[in-house]
Here is the input.
Amino acid sequence: MKSAVIVFPASNCDRDAAVALERISGSKPHMVWHGDSDLPEVDLIVLPGGFSYGDYLRCGAMASQSPIMKEVIKKAKAGTPTLGICNGFQVLTECGLLPGVLMRNAGLHFVCKTVPLSVENTDTVFTSKYGQGEVIDVPIAHHDGNYFADADTLDRVEGEGQVAFRYANDNPNGSARDIAGIVNAKSNVLGLMPHPERVIDQQLGGTDGAPLFAALTEALS
Amino acid sequence: MKARIHITLKAGVLDPEGKAIENALGSLGFDGVNDVRKGKYIELEIADSDETTARDNLTRMCEALLANTVIENYAIDLEA
Here is the structure.
């Protein structure tokens, strides 16, 4: 599986994503600077976590206008699997690849802890190695993870099976309908606030994120 | 031409920051403060001299970047 990790100014999970991808897929991802306008031919695009552009204006708003994003949007719309983690999820909503928006956490605090998630849709290239309803432990670390969309959009997203992950116990950020991650209508774009790339090795606290990368590797190699 | 743009949260969108500001005002002794909503204010200078063109350009700026219309409204004031 050939992959690319987009690096924005103040991305800070880009190397974690690269380690996870290399460890599980066996091949090193291309690290692509946000100012580039050419994207190499890849099977997977990853928008990593961080605080791109210092969260100026709104989280992900400036990054969504980066030169490379024109290519990312074009490839994602053409069907290339695209994964946005944390800040990457915010960028995906800001550029319109995913519906809704990530607002300030309802409790106003930055929340950094491991939370249980339930896997809501296993029929995607990202989630096929999890069981339906399986509960996995994945860390979150964000200030703006409060997923919001209007009621019609939420009903549509639910009805189409686009909710990929939900917070299983306490909702840590006030997100609508406990949503932690969603896919687009074609299921080739996933955005999620939790960090699967941080739990791919028992020595780092867990392995519940590994099946996501393993599923991608199997489907895209 | 100077433009002043107010960006506000749509009605019905929860505003935890506004709520925190309201609570802080209450704890400072300002009673009777309700419905605090936090927004953004952006000033900018544009080269357009025609008001219709300016307003059209500013609307496109708001739609493309300055506001997220999923949750925010915007209002444009122009000063010749």
About this structure: The first strand of chain B starts at residue 2 and ends at 9.
